[in-house]
Each structure stands twice: as C-alpha cells, then as structure tokens.
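Reminder: ligand-aware prediction takes two inputs, not one.
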Amino acid sequence: MTLGNSANLASEELWALDKAHVLHPWTNFGPFEDKGSLVITRGEGCWLWDSEGEKYFDAVGGLWCTNIGLGRAEMAEAIADQARRLAFSNTFVDMTNDVSALLAGKLAALAPGDLNRVHFTTGGSTAIDSAYRLIQFYQTCMGRPEKTGVVACENSYHGSTYIAQSIGKRGSDRVPQFRYMEAGIHHLSCPNPYRAPDGMGEAEFCDWLVAEFRALLDRVGPDRIGGFFAEPIQSSGGVIVPPKDYLRRIRAICAEHDILFVADEVVTAFGRIGHWFASEDEFGIVPDIICTAKGLSSGYIPIGAMIFSDRIWAAMAEDGGRWFTSGFTYSGHPVACAAGLKNIEIIEREDILGNAKRVGGYFEKRLKTLEALPMVGQVRGRKMMMCVENVADKATKRVLPEGLNESKLISDECEQMGLMVRPLGHLNVMSPPLVMTDDDVDFVVRTLERAIRRVTDRLVRQGVRFG
Ligand code: PLP
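Here is what comes back for the chain with pyridoxal-5'-phosphate:
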C-alpha cells in the first residue's frame, strides 16, 4: 500500500484513515464519529469528484477560495517549475527571493491608494494577526502606547488564531471549551439591515450604527483605540452587505482619530465581487491596511498578505533603529508567490473579474427568485458571494427551531443531486469559482430550489408551520 497515492487505496480505507487520525476544523464530534467525512479526490473547474466517483458542482468554491477553478495545468506547471528552480528561500531580515519581490510589486500596483507595502503570511488568519501587531507597532511608534485597543463587529469572522478569533465574534464559534482575549477588544452591532432593530430602515440603521461607534469612542476614549477591523461584506457571519455608506462613514471617523482601518478582504478580494479589491471599487473607501489570502492563489497553495500604506511604513521606519519582529518561516514562500503571480496573470488574461461581474449579476438575479418560496426570508449578497436565509415566518423573520438544522437538510438534499452549498446556521451560502457560466447558474438555482421545496414539504409533514 502506498500512502499518499489515493488511487491505491479503496474508498473505505481512505474514509477510515481520516476518521481514525484527523481532527478537522469545526468538526462536530457526534456526526463525525458516526459518519466520518466525504472524501474528495479530484477537482476540475467548478466540479469535484469523491472517492466513490460521484460528481458535484462546488458552489462553495472550496471555502470561498477556488476563484479561477481547479485543475489548471498552467498553475501546476508554475508551481512545479518554481519548486524545481527555488523551492525555498527565506525573506527574513535582509534576504528575499525574486518571486516574492515580483508578487509584492504586483499587489502594490493592484491595491488602492498608497497601500504599497506588503507583508506576506501563510493565510488569512495570520494576515489578521499581523495587522493586529502592526496596529500596536504603529501606534507605539507614534508615541501612543495606550492606543492599542481594537474594534470589530458582532458576527464577524477574521480567522482562527487566538487573536483572530478574539477579534471576530460569531456566537456559534464561542464554545465554552475555548478562551478568547477580551481586554482591549470591543464589538459593535452587526451591520445586518435584514435584522435591524425595531424594524429600522436602512438609512436610519446606518445612523444608529455610526452613533454606536461614536458612543464607544466616547466611553473608551479614542486614545485607547488603535484599529478597526471590518470585512467589507461579512462572509462567514452570513454574507452581510452593510447599509449604504456605513463603511465610508466608519472609515471617516477612524481617519479623524488615526484609528487604523483594516479591511479584511480575505474573501472579497481577487474577483469575488468583481474587483481586485472591494474596498475602493465597490464601497468607495481606501483602508490603511488590507488583509487578503484565499483568491490570491485561488486555493492552489496557502498564502496570505497584509498590504499597508506608505504612511504607516514612514512612521515605522522613521528613526531607522526599529525591528518588526513578526513574520513566518513561509512569509514570501517562493512556490506560493509563483502560484500567486500565475493566478493573477490568469485572472487578467481571461478577464475573470469581468466574468464575475456578468455571471455574478445573473446569479444574483436568478437566486433572488427563490424569495418566492415560503421558507426563504431573504436572498442576499453580491455577485459570486451569495446566501439564502431560511425563516419560519417571512413577516416576522422568525427563524426555525435550532434542532431542525434545516440548512444542513437542504445542503444534504443538494448533495444528493450533485450540488454543494454550505450550511451555516439558518443560511445556505454560496461562493462558486468565478469561472461559473450562466448554465451553471441555472443548474445551481434549479437544484437549490428543488432541495428547499423538498425540505419544506418534509418539515410541513412533521408539523412545522410556515407563516
Ligand atoms: N477573514 C475572513 C473574512 C475569512 O473568511 C477567513 C476564512 O474564512 C479568514 C479571515 C481566515 O483565513 P484563513 O482560514 O486562511 O486563515
């Protein structure tokens, strides 16, 4: 038996090895011990195959990341060529490698404003971690060692290191077995217009959110807040598009007090909603720091980046005697950077941003039709980042009882019909590869509709009443 070559192992053996040895992220132990995991062995474009040979359209896009689609020989060759030429060379202190310099230059050219400085990381969480550290570093350089608290939103997800999970705050992640850092981390209400308090309209809700931020600054003191973390669209917290002008107004308040505004574009960059970066092109703001990962290599290889402004760099580098003692063995890993460069080249050459805008627009429109179904409270999102929220009562927006797990029932139904969508609380979330076609959209929407209808019928038979 040759481990590492799945073709030599029977499907059940792979399944059993995984079940015996792997601790999966976010695994729910009961179902895992019972059913184990679905073993995927091949991917091409938007499609995945499992170890039994079943085929699925991957509307999850890996995990918001397979932007250019899987199985591209050109990517494999770029990775292999780089591994042959220079598989590793560190970027610490006074060393670099040619590909990391090239990718940094490319990112600086694509990023908005004066965001010309790049710190490479191993993924999104480590980019967020690095941003948290950069905030402390910068504010201390500016002579404000107390100005190191940070602000983020309820229901945000910023990754899974200790700090990243402490900055993010999704209720379901906060299990009692873990601890989180609380000192100096402040959370504001989630900017979800669908669940605005007291039935507020969007503009009124936006005023309310902005006032909440101002009240926090009055309470804590702007001299103790050094950074604000925001996902332009909250991804894992439920594909939440904030009220119009929310980000612009929050960003302006941050600028008033030199609170560094960190746009967590781990999901929204590299075409997810049709732009290289969403901050400026979609929401009209230039952040101080952008954290990104995922679509940077389209998931072909782990890599992340924190991109920050010349202004921050000038303050850090001013006296010439400081060290930024943060970074990773694999910061600027040549193979990862070669994958990033090739990925960007493909996005440019094939106008994948254009496809994301055009097909994404069609996806939004087609998916919106599902709002006619009795269980669908709202379809929301932008372009290639969409979700369907299930409710028991459309008028009151009351959710279904927790134990029903209707979004998992829906995703299981979809899976039976060859479609993968992601269950997340009361939502089914989709972030397909950006190379999806109009025909693919029709398949996804048709299949999802069928699954929602089947689950609704089953729940009605069990006595669930829809308002
Ligand atoms: N930030 C956002 C918005 C994310 O969605 C994620 C992952 O899903 C992260 C950060 C963490 O990225 P990673 O899993 O690459 O560490």
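Residues 438-461 form the longest helix (24 residues). DSSP finds 15 helices and 15 strands in the chain. We will return to this case in the review session.
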